[in-house]
Automatic annotation (TrEMBL):
<dbReference type="Pfam" id="PF04095">
    <property type="entry name" value="NAPRTase"/>
</dbReference>
<keyword id="KW-0662">Pyridine nucleotide biosynthesis</keyword>
<dbReference type="GO" id="GO:0005829">
    <property type="term" value="C:cytosol"/>
</dbReference>
<dbReference type="InterPro" id="IPR007229">
    <property type="entry name" value="Nic_PRibTrfase-Fam"/>
</dbReference>
<dbReference type="Pfam" id="PF17767">
    <property type="entry name" value="NAPRTase_N"/>
</dbReference>
<comment type="function">
    <text>Catalyzes the synthesis of beta-nicotinate D-ribonucleotide from nicotinate and 5-phospho-D-ribose 1-phosphate at the expense of ATP.</text>
</comment>
<dbReference type="GO" id="GO:0034355">
    <property type="term" value="P:NAD+ biosynthetic process via the salvage pathway"/>
</dbReference>
<dbReference type="InterPro" id="IPR036068">
    <property type="entry name" value="Nicotinate_pribotase-like_C"/>
</dbReference>
<keyword id="KW-0328">Glycosyltransferase</keyword>
<dbReference type="GO" id="GO:0016757">
    <property type="term" value="F:glycosyltransferase activity"/>
</dbReference>
<dbReference type="GO" id="GO:0004516">
    <property type="term" value="F:nicotinate phosphoribosyltransferase activity"/>
</dbReference>
<comment type="pathway">
    <text>Cofactor biosynthesis; NAD(+) biosynthesis; nicotinate D-ribonucleotide from nicotinate: step 1/1.</text>
</comment>
<keyword id="KW-0808">Transferase</keyword>
<feature type="domain" description="Nicotinate phosphoribosyltransferase N-terminal">
    <location>
        <begin position="11"/>
        <end position="130"/>
    </location>
</feature>
<keyword id="KW-0436">Ligase</keyword>
<dbReference type="InterPro" id="IPR006406">
    <property type="entry name" value="Nic_PRibTrfase"/>
</dbReference>
<keyword id="KW-0597">Phosphoprotein</keyword>
Length: 403
C-alpha cells in the first residue's frame, strides 16, 4: 500500500519562503541555485532506508498546485503583491530539479535549477524526511508523551503569568514546520497553544495553520536570502547592505525583522548603520549566546541614539520555554521581544529529533557560505571561499579564536 502524502497543501510551509521568494522573483528571476540536504546528528536508523519513500513523496509534491482558496489567503496579506500571486497560480515544482539518492547509509537530496523554482523545496523536503522517519516509531505512545509534555509547558507559562509584568509583553510563536514529528501533530500543538494560552501564543510560521486556525503568519527572511547576494555581482563586502536595501525597497516598512548571523553579529552590525536601524523594526537571533547577542543589539541601538523600546528582538535558536522565559526576564524591561520556538514545540514527544537542514550552497555557479555565531552552524562546501569570506569580514575561525 502506498504511503499517504506528507504534504497535502503548498501552504504547509514557512511564511518566509514566500517573503523571500517574492523579491527574488521581482529582482533576480534569472538566478541559478543549488540546495543540499544535510544531517547533523546520528539517527536511530540510516536515513538512506527512506530513499524510495522520499522519492515517492517528491513525486506527489511535484503534482500539487496552489488552489484558489490558498491564493486568496496569500493575496489577503498586504505585503504579498498581485503579480507574485499570479506567478504562484501557474507554479508547479519541477521533478527534474530535485533528486534523492542513497549512498551507503547516507541520504543525499539536492535541488538544482532556477532559484525561483527550487527555493521552495527546502521546508517540504525537511517535513517529508521527518515524518517518514518518525512513522516507524510508536505513534500513539509518542503522541501521549507529547501531550504530557505540552501540558507541562502550558502549566509553566500559566505559573509565569502570575509574575509581575515587565515593560514589554511576553509573546511566543511556533517555528516548528521543518523538524516536526508530523503534520497532524503540529496542528494539534498549535491549536492547543492558541486555545490555552491566547495571551502569550501569537502565531505560527506555518502558513496553512495560520489560515486554518485564524492566527498571524510569522516570518521575514532566512540565511538563503542574504547568502544569494554573495553571488549576485555586488562586491562581496557589500552583500549584506545590498540584500537589506532590496528588502527595504520590496516591502517598504513591512516585514522589518533582519536576520543577523549570515556572517556573524559583529560583521552584521558593522553594516547595520543608522539608515537600516531606522528602517528595520528589529533583529532576529539564530546562533551564538542569545544574552550576549541581545546586549550587543541594545548597545548598537544606544550608540545610534535609537530608543530600544521602539525596536523588537526576535529569538529563534534552539529555544524551549525555560530559555525563552530567562531571556524575557533579562531583557523585558528594555526592549520588545518575540520568541520563535521550533523543535521543542512540534517534536518534543520523547524521541530524539533529527537535526536536519537543506541549505543553499551555490548561486549562479559560485559557492556561498554562512559564518554562524555558533561554530556548529557554519555551513560551506568550498573551504577556499569560506576562508575568503572570513578574511573579507574579519571573522576568525574557531581554531583561530582558541589558539
Amino acid at each position: 500500500m502506498p504511503l499517504s502524502p506528507v504534504i497535502q497543501s503548498l501552504l504547509d510551509t514557512d511564511l518566509y519562503k514566500f517573503t523571500m521568494w517574492q523579491p527574488m522573483l521581482h529582482r533576480h528571476p534569472q538566478a541559478q541555485a543549488v540546495y543540499r540536504f544535510v544531517l547533523r546528528n546520528q539517527p536511530e536508523y540510516p536515513l538512506a532506508e527512506l530513499v524510495d519513500a522520499v522519492n515517492a513523496q517528491l513525486d506527489h509534491l511535484c503534482g500539487l498546485c496552489f488552489r484558489r482558496d490558498e491564493l486568496d489567503f496569500l493575496a489577503s496579506l498586504r505585503f504579498i503583491k498581485p503579480d507574485f500571486v499570479d506567478f504562484l497560480r501557474i507554479f508547479r515544482f519541477q521533478r527534474d530539479f530535485i533528486a534523492a539518492r542513497a549512498e551507503g547509509d547516507t541520504l543525499h537530496i539536492e535541488a538544482r535549477g532556477p532559484q525561483v523554482h527550487v527555493m521552495g523545496f527546502e521546508i517540504f523536503v525537511l517535513a517529508i524526511v521527518n515524518e517518514l522517519y518518525f512513522r516507524r516509531f510508536d505513534q500513539e505512545a509518542a503522541r501521549e508523551e507529547g501531550r504530557r509534555r505540552l501540558d507541562a509547558k502550558i502549566a509553566q507559562l500559566r505559573a509565569f503569568a502570575q509574575e509581575p509584568p515587565l515593560a514589554h509583553p511576553f509573546e511566543f510563536f511556533d517555528f516548528g514546520v521543518r523538524r516536526r514529528f508530523g503534520r497532524d501533530w503540529q496542528r494539534e500543538v498549535v491549536a492547543t497553544l492558541a486555545r490555552e494560552l491566547p495571551d502569550f501564543f501569537k502565531g505560527t510560521s506555518n502558513v496553512l495553520l495560520a489560515r486554518d486556525l485564524g492566527l498571524v503568519p510569522i516570518g521575514t527572511m532566512g540565511h538563503e536570502y542574504l547568502q544569494t547576494f554573495q553571488a549576485l555581482g555586488v562586491r562581496l563586502r557589500d552583500f549584506q547592505r545590498a540584500a537589506l536595501e532590496e528588502w527595504v525597497q520590496e516591502y517598504r516598512g513591512d516585514l522589518g525583522i533582519a536576520l543577523t548571523d549570515t556572517v556573524g553579529m559583529d560583521a552584521f552590525l558593522a553594516d547595520f548603520d543608522l539608515y537600516f536601524a531606522k528602517l528595520f523594526e528589529g533583529l532576529r537571533h539564530d546562533s551564538g549566546d542569545p544574552f550576549a547577542w541581545g546586549e550587543k543589539a541594545l548597545a548598537h541601538y544606544a550608540g545610534l541614539r535609537i530608543n530600544a523600546h521602539d525596536k523588537r528582538l526576535v529569538f529563534s535558536d534552539s529555544l524551549d520555554v525555560p530559555k525563552a522565559l530567562a531571556l524575557y526576564r533579562h531583557f523585558g524591561d528594555r526592549v520588545d521581544m518575540g520568541f520563535g520556538i521550533g523543535t521543542n514545540l512540534t517534536n518534543d514527544v520523547g524521541l530524539k529529533p533529527l537535526n536536519i537542514v537543506m541549505k543553499l550552497v551555490e548561486a549562479n555557479g559560485q559557492p556561498v557560505a554562512k559564518l554562524s555565531d555558533a561554530p556548529g552552524k557554519t555551513l560551506a562546501t568550498d573551504a577556499t571561499f569560506l576562508a575568503y569570506l572570513r578574511q573579507v569580514f574579519g571573522v576568525a575561525s574557531q581554531a583561530q579564536r582558541t589558539a
